[in-house]
Amino acid sequence: MALPQPAAAHRRIDGDGCSRERAQLALLRRRYREGGLIAAYLLRRTGLLLLSLALAAALLFLVLRVLGNPVYALISVGATEEDIAAAAARLGVDRPIGEQFVEYIQQLVTLDLGTSFTNQLSVGDEIARRLNVTLPLTLISFALSVLIAIPVGFIAAWRSRTWYGTAFSAATQLGGAIPVFWVGILLITVFALQNRFLPAGGFPRSDWADPADALRSLTLPVLTIAIVAGSDLARYVRSATLDVLGQVYLRTARATGQSFGGAIWRHGVRNGIVPVISILAIQLSTTFVGAVIVENVFGLPGLGDMLLTAIRERDFPSVQGVVLFSTVLVLGLGFAADVTQRIIDPRLRTTLSGNRRAGSRRAAVSA
Asked: Which of 188, 252, 322, 336 is deepest in the core (most CB within 10 A)?
């Protein structure tokens, strides 16, 4: 066989080198374009987040003022008009509502949640103190619900045609349908009143000085939230798993000789984790809201107790502080989940690019 001419060989090598350089340049351009799209998306989502928080703060302020004058909830019976006027001046509610709103916005900009009407303490400091109960309750309940939901949801999908797969699926449907406060009352009846294994409610005065005692007080509230939240999350995991198991790429991987576990780990987990991220963020915010409700069932001195007391006493700064903190947490978790999805999923980045090109075409047609 004749050897190739040196000139032709050099041209072939140069052509291969140019092809590699063009491919690398195209890859760099694509990554640069995707980075720009993600940056623009981050700016847009951040703007929407700030706008949502501003609208929520304004709406909360107006709704509370519609409920009536908070002075009448604080004064004693038989107070004179002079006493009412003095209390209104002390609380600052005698001024025009526009002036009160401007001061309210100025405080929020400086991260100052104001002073409580009832005890004259800083609302921010009181929220931080109450978080010593609400935050551990939320995080422990969320972790336990995830540990319950992932294996239960996976087995319910993987063995959906067996009796125990059907039983797991039915259990998740039942657990998600029961109100959280009813589950709490049931657990109190069984484990605190009938058997006296655990306390029915309350929290140690020493706070977390004795961790074992504090955790014992949180056991029933944690189980209450984890049962309901874990059931909801297990149904989402089951649905996502069934979707992955029905994909063509998984059957193709099995046909090439890969084991079921290997195919799931290599191909199923990465594709199935994207929708689960948003579900986990929603579940964490739902767990936080559930913790606020459950605290009132078990008499825990957390944010739920603070909010209920503030509403009853018309303590506007405390109500505003707790609701705004909860709003920031819920919207922030949704924002973080959405951004994380866009970063780790190439299909969503392609969607961003497609939306941008479609917008450019519409603008050109309009012009």
From this structure: 322
